[in-house]
């Protein structure tokens, strides 16, 4: 039988929703699923993980060093814990991408990145070439399979489970060569870009940091998260964590509104799984219109206020 | 100090890659090739560390077929001092690449290795982390700012939550994000000069690398196509279309 270890992602207070998606992928593999929570104080996250459907056990690995999720700190512990598991999974977020390959190398395993689909316990689909090719890969099963899960391809599992929670310790030696300094995070009350059902993104066409207010205003009206193209981030209109695309966040909202974004391959990679794509752009030939379900040609500074007015009527 | 930089030859970022009809791979014949964009940034960062006053030898390294010499020559023209090509026509996956780089790192006695955060062909995002593991040294991935003092690097990393700052002791592995820097253009005289810079060709066997386990690609398929392309006339029509699709 498969025994699957899912590495939980959290910020020290709350479980990240990406964890529930990795558990869905684990369920698709099939077998006994354990979730590992590495933290200084894991109680809240362990309780949340115990509710994830399909999880058998939640392992709490509490240690002062685990207060920040540093790859160099977590990896030796993951490697110890991995013994006896057939699969080790983590979400393909910046956290999972940082930690898991380090563990895979210690285990002598070639990792599978960004699992989109499970064909069977050793065969998976993953994207390459900015999503322009979907490749089926067969993975050597021993000593174990290590994979990250492309969160946009998976629905979160339900939260009606009731797993047992066990405290576990490892005798892993933790290096001191890597130290956390600080996290500069924008605190915002807006919906989270990676899990929001609606997203409004602005591109270079928005023109400036000040002008981005029109994007925020429109997003608020829709109850949407705000995203951006790389050009908008590079130009300093918005912080980096809003970037959507091949090298930013890959998202799958119900509704994606691209405003003043041309639709470069690298941007489209991030939104391919959106249910409905709306494009607003003044250039009728912008490539974004080829993928948009609904396109409207025109000046965003005219269209957005009009849209807000119409939405008020609903 | 010695800095090793990864230079991977990949299909140019501007090419829209097509899957072959028989599902055995992607079309690469006659397609424009270039240096992986993240690797240009890696080399640029190495050059800037030197230009800011740290004495450094910068070595560009690539694994792949003989054609990789083109990309290594470009790296030499940008300012690398020497180049190493580990020549192989096999498919080199990240664990194998990391094992090869680990051998080079030991031979060269490197202090810092800068790789891209991901290669835009396989999009694996693994090699730097794997090299750091094999070397048992720190990794600072997705770097958008690097400060260098004594034997410590302070690195700002682009993470989902924002920007994380960590400090790592050298030797270490750094992987680059797009906003770390903007790579310089190569000038004609530098291309001429680069011709006489040393480029050494090695074989994986000579390095004594044990072959790493591999993923076997059994099929390539194009992604599901979106049927987009519909346009509406005005804002009320947009609202109607959204309602029709059940999103409003
Ligand atoms: C390795 C690599 C990785 C990359 N990763 C990413 C990534 O993750 N995400 C990403 O987004 N990009 C990424 N890029 C960059 C990408 O190639 C494009 O350069 C970028 O997406 C362009 O952003 P943009 O559409 O905002 O800007 P532009 O291409 O400049 O488009 C601006 C658009 O705004 C429209 N416009 C201007 N004014 C108005 C107005 N008043 N009203 C309406 N429309 C207007 C214009 O018609 C134009 O279509 C990457 C590139 C590389 C090489
Ligand atoms: N064959 C290779 N030749 C040179 N550099 C490579 C090679 N494979 C991986 N790299 C380096 O590792 C980085 C990450 O690659 P990957 O893990 O494949 O996404 C790249 O940006 C390169 O710097």
Kindly report the spatial arrangement of strands forming the biggest sheet of chain B: 9-8-7-10-6-1-4-5-11
Major sheet attributes of chain B: 9 strands, mixed
Report the CATH topology name of chain B.
Rossmann fold
Any idea of the CATH class of the largest domain in chain A?
A: Alpha Beta
Backbone shape of chain A? elongated
Mean pLDDT of chain B: 96
In the sheet with the most strands of chain A, the strands line up as: 5-9-4-1-2-3-10
Instruction: Tell me the CATH architecture of the largest domain in chain A.
Output: 3-Layer(aba) Sandwich
Please, what is the oligomeric state? heterodimer
Q: Mean pLDDT score of chain A, rounded? A: 96
Q: What is the correct CATH architecture of chain B? A: 3-Layer(aba) Sandwich
CATH superfamily membership of the largest domain in chain A, which one?
Answer: HUPs
* Residue share in β-strands of chain B: 25-35%
Radius of gyration of chain A: 21 Å
Helix percentage range of chain A: 25-40%
- Our Rg estimate of chain B from Cα atoms comes to 21 Å
Distinct helical segment count of chain B: 6
Instruction: Determine the number of helices of chain A (DSSP H or I, runs of at least 4 residues).
Output: 9
**Number of individual domains of chain B:** 1
Task: Name a few traits of the molecule.
heterodimer; A: 314 residues; alpha/beta; Rossmann fold; 2 domains; seven-stranded parallel sheet; five-stranded parallel sheet; 16 strands; 28% strand; B: 248 residues; two-stranded antiparallel ribbon; 6 helices; 13 strands; 27% helix; 30% strand; globular; binds flavin-adenine dinucleotide; binds adenosine monophosphate
């Amino acid at each position: 039988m498969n025994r699957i270890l899912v590495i939980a992602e959290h910020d020290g207070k709350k479980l990240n929703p990406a964890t529930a998606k990795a558990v869905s992928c684990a369920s698709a593999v099939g077998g006994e699923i354990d979730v590992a929570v590495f933290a200084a104080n894991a109680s809240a996250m362990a309780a949340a993980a115990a509710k994830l459907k399909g999880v058998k056990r939640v392992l709490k690995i509490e240690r002062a060093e685990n207060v920040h999720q540093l790859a160099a700190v977590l990896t030796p512990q993951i490697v110890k814990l991995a013994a006896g598991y057939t699969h080790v999974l983590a979400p393909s977020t910046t956290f999972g991408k940082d930690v898991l390959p380090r563990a895979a190398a210690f285990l002598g395993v070639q990792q599978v990145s960004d699992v989109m689909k499970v064909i069977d316990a050793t065969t998976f689909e993953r994207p390459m070439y900015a999503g322009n090719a979907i490749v089926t890969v067969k993975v050597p099963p021993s000593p174990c399979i290590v994979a990250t899960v492309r969160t946009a391809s998976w629905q979160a599992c339900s939260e009606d489970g009731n797993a047992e929670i066990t405290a576990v310790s490892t005798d892993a030696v933790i290096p001191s060569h890597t130290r956390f300094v600080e996290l500069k995070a924008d605190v915002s009350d807006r919906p989270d870009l990676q899990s929001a059902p609606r997203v409004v993104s602005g591109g270079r066409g928005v023109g400036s940091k000040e002008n981005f207010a029109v994007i925020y205003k429109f997003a608020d009206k829709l109850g949407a998260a705000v995203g951006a193209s790389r050009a908008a981030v590079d130009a300093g209109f918005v912080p980096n964590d809003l970037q959507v695309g091949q090298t930013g966040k890959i998202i799958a909202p119900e509704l994606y509104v691209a405003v003043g974004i041309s639709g470069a391959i690298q941007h489209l990679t991030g939104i391919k799984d959106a249910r409905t794509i709306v494009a607003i752009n003044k250039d009728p030939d912008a490539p974004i219109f080829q993928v948009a379900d609904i396109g409207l040609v025109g000046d965003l500074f005219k269209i957005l206020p009009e849209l807000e007015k119409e939405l008020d009527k609903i | 100090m010695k800095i090793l930089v990864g230079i991977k030859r990949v299909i140019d970022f501007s090419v829209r890659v097509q899957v072959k009809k028989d599902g055995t791979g992607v079309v690469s014949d006659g397609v424009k090739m270039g240096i992986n964009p993240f690797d240009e940034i890696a080399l640029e960062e190495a050059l800037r560390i030197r230009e800011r006053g740290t004495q450094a030898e910068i070595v560009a390294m690539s694994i792949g077929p003989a054609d990789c010499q083109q990309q290594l020559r470009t790296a030499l023209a940008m300012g690398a001092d020497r180049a190493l090509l580990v020549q192989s026509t096999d498919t080199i996956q990240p664990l194998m690449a990391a094992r090869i780089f680990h051998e080079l790192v030991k031979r060269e006695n490197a202090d810092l290795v800068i790789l891209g955060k991901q290669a835009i062909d396989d999009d694996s995002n693994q090699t730097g982390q794997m090299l750091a593991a094999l070397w048992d040294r720190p990794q600072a991935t997705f770097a958008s700012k690097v400060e260098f003092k004594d034997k410590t690097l302070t690195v700002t990393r682009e993470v989902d939550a924002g920007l994380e700052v960590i400090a790592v002791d050298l030797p270490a592995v750094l992987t680059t994000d797009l906003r770390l820097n903007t790579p310089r253009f190569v000038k004609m005289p530098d291309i001429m000069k680069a011709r006489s810079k040393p480029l050494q060709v090695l074989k994986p066997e000579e390095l004594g690398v044990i072959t790493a386990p591999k993923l076997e690609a059994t099929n390539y398929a194009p992604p599901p196509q979106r049927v987009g392309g519909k346009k509406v006339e005005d804002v009320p029509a947009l609202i109607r279309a959204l309602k029709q699709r059940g999103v409003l």
